[in-house]
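Example 3.2
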Amino acid sequence: MIGKQRIALTSLLGLILATLGLIYVLNLERIQRSAMEWFMVLKPNSMITNLWEHPSLLMRANVYIFNWTNPEDIDNPNVKPRLQELGPYSFTETVQKLNITWNDNSTVSYLRRSRFTFDPSASVGKLSDVIVTPNTLAVGLTYKAKKWSPMLRTLMLLALNMYGNDATFVKTADEWLFRGFDTPLIKMSNMVPTRMLPELHFPYERVGYGYPRNESTEVYGHHNVYTGQEDFSKLGQIARWRYSNVSSPFPKCKLRGSIGEFHPIPLRKGEPISYFLPDICRELKIDYAGTTVFEGIDAYVYRGSKRNMANGTDNPENSCYCEDNCEDVRSGLLNVSACWYDVPVFVSYPHFYNCDPYYLEAVEGLKPEKDRHEMVVILEPITGMLLDIKATLMISLLIEPRPESVYRKARRTFMPLVWADYRVRISEDLLFYIKLVPISAVVGKICGILVVVLGLALLLYYPRKIFVQRRFMRQIDITNLENRIQATAASPELKNFGAGAEGSPLLVGLQYVASSAEAEHAS
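Structure, written as tokens:
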């Protein structure tokens, strides 16, 4: 006989295993999400924090500069500016996070420094290429002078006539990109105390599209981002920039967006993602475009759309970025002049892709192409990790006729200056870990089901065993009875004995008891 205590313990263990396994399977998604949140929250000395501090992503910036080939026709409003695209000038980027400080309000502060290294093998152009561009300095001063007093405007005109009123700058690609170049006008302005004429103060001592970005923290500024400790949905989102909770060029807009390393998870189909871009001092949204398979991983695709670059009229979400004296323009260009020290700079997709046709018709030499100029981001939906990105943006300068400007007879034109194709691709080691995420989910579900099956097996083992044994014993009893009856029928002596005893009171009594038992069993 099997001990009752053994049966009870085995059944109890089976019940516990089956219950826990069923709870695990039904709540598997919630359990995995909690584990993911615990793993991805930024905290000192964790694995994810080490990856965040020293990113192993493969980052490359391909820069294209527009060469102005017919500047001699600037005074002829009937001739369009003709542009020649030069490049790419390819650079690899290495990112460092400096002065990392963990704060008590679930944020972490740091300074970002990038080092750009020229890669001749991946470049078409040379850094020694000579490039002709509009005089961005003169255009910027003229644009800013609209808000100045007549006396300041007069001083500005005198300075321009003395130190640089040419229509163009002729510099090398290296000077335009990261090395920069100085001008007599900047040297002169540095001699004037900033308190006397703050309007004539230049933020940097040199001019250049990428100056002083290389190996400097100046352009990117001080970052303060959420760690996700208190609110996981804010992980990696900007909290403060340059020690302020608003972007000073756009004080009426909320400071928001991802810095790029993390995204709110799980990602939801149909919803856009957003980035805070220090280069334009604002948030830029990118719309959901569907799904794809990237290196065997199911992923979400986001693409830059017309809506993302629309003006405040066509897209009210962008209205706060252009108020008061801001010059709102046709959709396709975003006015970021306030971010670029009041120089009339506008950002768009390269070659005016997805822009109002007005911009493309005003110049010659551009050819927008979806494959080259569309912004595309691919993310893993469970972790929100970046798999691949092609970030494409172009900077244009507004040239307009003004009496005090060197372009007094020019046609109003948004002149493309430079555009960048910024590529970031996940490294092979991170890709390996991300591929384990869906596998771990399947393995977790299989393990949960196996635990439920094991629990049920233990729970039903002894009851089934006892049931089988009793059935087997009953079968043995019936078989023995049948054998005895057959033996009785085959023996003549037993037959005679049965006939002689047929009328005995004892046999009659036994037959009565048997018939009563059968009747009771039938009822």
